[in-house]
Automatic annotation (TrEMBL):
Keywords: Antibiotic resistance, ATP-binding, Nucleotide-binding, Nucleotidyltransferase, Transferase. GO terms for biological process: response to antibiotic. The keyword Transferase applies. Residues 152-245 form the Adenylyltransferase AadA C-terminal domain. InterPro entries: AadA/Aad9, AadA_C, NT_sf. The lineage of its organism: Bacteria, Bacillati, Bacillota, Bacilli, Bacillales. It comes from Paenibacillus rhizosphaerae. Gene3D superfamilies: Beta Polymerase, domain 2 (3.30.460.10). This is Spectinomycin 9-adenylyltransferase.
């Protein structure tokens, strides 16, 4: 099953299970921004509903997602969240969600037919909504500009939570942190909402030349042209420290306390 077939099946699943309360289904992440890889990227979806359904709906939706995952050989997986429309139009941070499915929860869904991840808050959702508003694809329902009202401060707080511990953690996930730091700084400098790949490419053009070897390695690894990034941990930490210093400075200038 190719990616477009998967998206069609996902859309039909949400229409069938959520019915009339489904405002819309929106694609975000790498697939919406043109840098998706089946073996490394999730299919990222956000569904918006007018009102809460009964708990049996989430159970059926989870079963459907598990079944669909079994028909996706070679694909990494899906990350799906469902929120109420009120939080799309009047966002809170962190944002409450009604249902969530991802690879981190798939085994629990498989082993426990009654398990549902929902009724909590997710700091990442503010970032997802900003991406949907600027770069997302409407798979079903109302166009995203009529549904979402993302707020700049919430977006910045959301993406900051992804990288605030980068100095301590970048050596364990150099590609993730390096490219994320670039796309966050690009937004703070230029207001552009970017993918990780676009952030790294921007970094090659806009950051000091000393960072070029690291950025090129990370982009190659992200694109699947190499399997590892060969940079000493102290150099990765120095990059993260420099980037975080400017990010924090620009957040302070925006009136946002890191």
């Amino acid at each position: 099953m190719n990616t477009q077939q998967v998206l069609h099946r996902l859309t039909q699943l949400f229409i069938t299970e959520l019915g009339a309360p489904l405002t819309g289904l929106y694609l975000h992440g790498s697939l919406a921004m043109g840098c998706y890889r089946e073996d490394r990227s999730d299919i990222d979806l956000l569904a918006v509903i007018e009102e809460k359904p009964g708990p049996e709906v989430w159970t059926r939706l989870a079963r459907g997602l598990l079944e669909l995952h079994g028909l996706m050989p070679g694909h990494r997986g899906m990350e799906v969240s469902v929120i109420l429309r009120q939080y799309a139009g009047e966002p809170l941070h962190p944002t409450p969600f009604e249902f969530h499915y991802s690879e981190a929860h798939r085994e629990r869904y498989e082993s426990d037919a009654q398990y549902v991840c929902g009724g909590y808050e997710d700091p990442d959702l503010a970032a997802h909504m900003m991406v949907i508003y600027h770069r997302g694809i409407t798979l079903y329902g109302e166009p995203s500009p009529s549904v979402f009202r993302p707020e700049k401060e919430m977006y910045i707080r959301s993406i900051w939570s992804d990288v605030e511990h980068a100095v301590e953690q970048i050596a364990e996930a150099p590609v993730y942190y390096t490219l994320n730091l670039c796309r966050i700084l690009r937004f703070l400098r230029e207001g552009e909402v970017s993918s990780k790949k676009e952030g790294g490419e921007w970094g090659l053009e806009s950051l000091p030349p000393a960072y070029e070897p690291l950025l090129r390695q990370c982009l190659l690894q992200y694109g699947g042209q190499t399997d590892e990034v060969s940079v000493e941990p102290r150099m990765l930490q120095a990059f993260a420290r420099d980037m975080l210093n400017e990010i924090k400075q620009r957040m302070t200038e925006e009136g946002i306390r890191p």
